[in-house]
Amino acid sequence: MQIKTIQISNVLGLARAxxxxxxxxxxxxxxxxxxxxxIADAISMxxxxxxxxxxxxxxxxxxxxxxxxxxxxxxxxxxGEPLGDFKLPKGEHLVSDNIKGAQYLSxxxxxSLFGQQPQADRRKTLFSLTNCKVSAxxxxxxxxxxxxxxxxxAEIKSSLAxxxxxxxxxxxxxxxQAKGAFRAVTGMNWGANQAEGWTVxxxxxxxxxxxxxxxxxxxxxxxxxxxxxxxxxxxxxEQRRADAIGIDQKRKDLEDLAATLKRATAxxxxxxxxxxxxxxxxxxxxxxxxxxxxxxxxxxxxxxxxDLVVSGQTLTPFTGAKADPVKAxxxxxxLRKAQEAVTLYKSTLANDQRAIAAAExxxxxxxxxxxxxxxxxxxxxxxxxxxLNKLRQNVATYRAQIEALTERKNLIDGAAQSExxxxxxxxxxxxxxxxxEALAPNGIPAEILSGALAPVNDALAILCRMSxxxxxxxxxxxxxxxxxxxxxxxxxxxxxRADCLIALAIAQISELKLIVxxxxxxxxxxxxxxxxxxxxxxxxxxxxETVIVCGTMKAIPANMGPEVTGVWxxxxxxxxxxx
Length: 579
Hints:
Blueprint: E1 3-11, E2 14-20, E3 25-30, H1 36-48, E4 71-77, E5 82-88, E6 93-95, H2 105-109, H3 113-116, H4 119-129, H5 136-145, H6 150-156, H7 163-186, H8 192-195, H9 210-258, H10 261-293, E7 299-300, E8 307-311, E9 314-317, H11 325-368, H12 378-439, H13 444-467, E10 472-474, E11 480-482, E12 485-486, H14 492-509, E13 514-517, H15 527-540, E14 546-552, E15 564-570, E16 573-575
Parallel strand pairs: 2-16, 3-14, 3-15, 13-14
Antiparallel strand pairs: 1-2, 1-4, 4-5, 5-6, 7-8, 8-9, 10-11, 11-12, 15-16
Helix pairs in contact: 4-13, 5-6, 7-12, 9-11, 9-12, 10-11, 13-14
């Protein structure tokens, strides 16, 4: 990837940068805070569209230089076509869609990125970089070669679309499910040793043949029949006792009622006597009242006070019997009292007659009531209840025997099937575990990765020889070593060297042939010319087309060679042809 021009205005520490590439290598230097790293960040921003120093789009205005209203980075290629363009503060971004290997640009624009990645991401990057792929059929064959069950190996093929990690997860989940199935059958957690040859533990106990179960069932049936008969017998006893109690009470009630006959008869006679006394009184008062009401009532003559009677329009002397209204009123009052007494005594007489009839009926009923009822004692009821309780205990015992015998029979009958199922689940656990382990990073992917690592480590070996630096190696476990020391344990300058060489290898394999190296001043005075010599050789060989190196120096070195252009950054301005 050849860069022709870089134009920057009001971005970060740069007021302006106007860079024209006439050589494959450009060294940008200047004092501290001159804007060297700003150029590296601006290049990444223009190509990737992702600012490094802020995370939120609303903060893009903070990337403007010294309060400028607008900023921009524009990069063109060797043919003058735009490679990338980024505008501030809105974040408008345009990038060429013709960049070969564009997915690896982030690794050559930020050389520390690969070393900072988790091992899984490093592996994924190298798989993609080296175009190291394997078909599902080839993976299936590799699994079978490792001893995987052919049926399960064919089943896992559909999960390989998720990658080795996803397929390994599916296999591990299937192994977990098989362990759960094993537990469901055996009642114990799966373990490689204890699951091997597992058998059902059948405790010592009585025979559980069908005849023994049938005999217990017959005993249960008879006991239940006896309970039904016993309940009926107890019910009969209780009914007879209730009947006896009822008859005794009825006899007592009848005797009490019959005993009232004499008293009721005497009371009736007294009532009749009183009634007979009042009847003639009523009769006499009725006659007296009639007599008191007969006759007329005369009027007094206004002249002589003689008694007169009105006859039509004529007054004649009164000669008949005189009526007595006062006496008639008194007699009528006495008559009402006498009639009320008669009515009361007649009602009482009727009640007395009913009482006599009830007493006579009770006396008659006593004569026909059975005098003998077979007695039922408490001892009989208690004995019947005890017999029923014993039968119920027997039923519980027989049922427990049947349940135990049936459970034991089922255990024995199902033992072979359970053992067969447990063995199958155990086999499935081991089979899925084998597949999960084979698909794990250190399994088949590691075998494939060894092929992917070869070109990368070969490129690193060549670069190490060219630079004279210690060997950089990427292991199958995705560890990075520099001079046999793990990357994380290295010094800052050693990490920089390792990052530089890995980024150069990625730039060559991806055919980007571009790299931006910031802070090269971390190298000592010996390391800097080693780096420059390596870069110049790569440029002469055509292995790299654009190399941008940023770092602090006192001045641009002279006589760096025809492959190198030096640019001094000062007062926030960088130009290849300063005026």
